[in-house]
Design a protein that fits this description.
There is one protein chain. The protein is of the alpha/beta class and about 475 residues long. Helix content is about 45%, strand content about 15%. The protein contains 18 helices and 14 strands. The strands form 3 sheets. Strands 5-4-3-6-9-8-10-7 form an 8-stranded mixed β-sheet, sandwiched between helices. Helix 3 links the parallel strand 3 and strand 4.
């Protein structure tokens, strides 16, 4: 509020409210921060994203970095634009942007978020304990939601950091507004690349398993603009579901709860609360109309709950690879490999087997999963496929193809599989990828379990294994 000469108060303009700062914040001493914004939109969205970055109050040593995941932003005054279009994924863009960061703290800020000018200072308004690896700034819905899809997202507030930090499996945080200590980021190798969704949940779980803590900064809040159309919302929901299914394959004991079950639980809790409240007095015409409109809107939300629940059930069967994958590391662009290396968790930092793999010409790696800490440079230099990324639909389709083309090999694999070894369905996508690498040699990188998997893959595709260790 601002006072007029007559002593009356007029509403403060949004711009004035945004720029108004407490005197304490002006005296605040804080370290330098590198702000990294992944971007994958059009030119109009780029202008908004760049304006959001420019309006942040910065100090000497701060950086503003836009990691362009779309290939559409060339340069911008006051913002360092980094090309990050080799793989269309937020994880890749964030890692590329972080690679240009020079500060001990990296603030990841999504392009569909509106940030107050004093966001960076707000993160440091309170002391940060030395064991805190990341601070989760709150993400609230943007108040300008105009479409039903955007209003639904705002009402459900899917990105609330407070809710995510209360996750029953392990506290998690979204990377839409996340301040990360560089030491924690480098310890785990950053975000996992080559995944479509849930990379921020995985990142927050890995830094906790590495000994760091997550902490909420509710005052460091941004406003998030949710998807505007039903088609965008449905695609996003399928991606979220694929990501949760991927987490279920990565983390023992975690099982994604379908949205229909969550919606049913939410409806039951609402019904119980209403039953405990006595009937209100008779409403006036105006309040009655408002109540009727509210019921209609809630009805639309329930319909969307059911529709997105069905989308989620489909998404839970999908693979978690980006819709547009990374370009081939080979100069001619041909994705056919000459040697396929079978590994367990690959590539870990300092692993001599990773160095060996880089010496081979046209080598592709078939690995079970990513390690807790990834050597990003090795992962980018090689073509790597992970069995943990294969969804149920991909496994069923690959198994059907193998059974149709090589029924006797499949029967033999089932008969000779040893206890504790993966089932044929889990190996089927890897075998089908190897089937497309006609003539490629199969070489194990690891112990007896890896050699056994390599022998099975070679047998399923009708080629001799190479059991010798490098």
């Amino acid at each position: 509020m601002t006072a007029t000469d007559g002593g009356h108060h007029e509403p403060e303009s949004p711009s004035a409210a945004r720029l108004r700062r407490p005197a304490q914040a002006c005296r605040l001493r804080r370290p330098a921060v590198s702000v990294v914004m992944p971007f994958a939109g059009d030119q109009a969205s780029a202008r908004v994203a760049l304006q959001t970055l420019r309006e942040l109050e910065t100090r000497l040593g701060d950086q503003l970095i836009l990691a362009d995941n779309s290939g559409s932003v060339r340069s911008a005054d006051g913002v360092e634009v980094v090309s990050a279009d080799s793989e269309r994924s937020p994880a890749y863009a964030r890692n590329v942007g972080a690679g240009r960061a020079q500060s001990d703290w990296i603030l990841f800020l999504d392009a569909d978020c509106l940030a107050p000018s004093g966001l960076i200072d707000t993160y440091f308004a309170e002391p940060i304990d030395p064991d805190v690896g990341a601070l989760a700034g709150e993400v609230v819905p943007s108040p300008d939601a105009a479409t039903l899809a955007a209003q639904y997202g705002a009402a459900r507030s899917f990105l609330s950091q407070e809710s995510h930090l209360a996750h029953p499996y392990l506290p998690r945080a979204v990377a839409a507004n996340l301040l990360v200590r560089r030491a924690a980021f480098e310890q785990v190798g950053g975000f996992y690349e080559g995944v479509r969704a849930a990379e921020d949940t995985d990142f927050s779980w890995r830094i906790q398993r590495a000994g760091w803590r997550l902490e909420l900064r509710p005052q460091a809040r941004v406003a998030h603009r949710y998807r505007q159309t039903l088609g965008e919302l449905r695609r996003q929901w399928r991606g979220y579901a694929a990501g949760r299914a991927w987490l279920g394959r990565r983390y023992e004991g975690f099982e994604p709860e379908p949205a229909l079950r969550r919606a049913a639980g939410r409806a039951w809790r609402v019904a119980v609360r209403r039953a405990r409240v006595s009937s209100p007095p008779a409403a006036t015409d105006r309040s009655g109309a408002s109540s009727s409109a509210g019921r209609m809107q809630r009805g639309r939300y329930h319909v969307l709950d059911a529709l997105l629940g069905a989308e989620e059930l489909a998404g839970l069967t999908l693979s978690n690879r980006p819709l547009v994958g990374r370009s081939s590391p080979w100069l001619d662009g041909d994705r056919s490999a000459q040697v396929v290396l079978v590994a367990n968790r690959f590539p870990a930092p300092g692993d001599p087997l990773a160095d060996f793999a880089r010496t081979l010409e046209r080598a592709r790696v078939e690995a079970v999963a990513r390690p807790e800490s990834v050597d990003v440079n090795v992962a980018r230099a090689l073509a790597v496929d992970y069995r943990e990324d294969d969804g149920a639909a991909a496994r069923i389709a690959a198994l059907a193809r193998l059974a149709l083309l090589h029924p006797l090999r499949c029967v033999s694999d089932v008969i000779h599989r040893r206890p504790g070894e993966p089932r044929l369905g889990a190996l089927a996508p890897a075998a089908w990828r190897l089937h497309r690498d006609a003539g490629a040699r199969v070489h194990p990188l690891g112990g007896e379990d890896v050699r056994a998997a390599a022998r099975r893959l070679a047998a399923l595709t009708g080629r001799p294994p190479h059991d010798a260790e490098p």
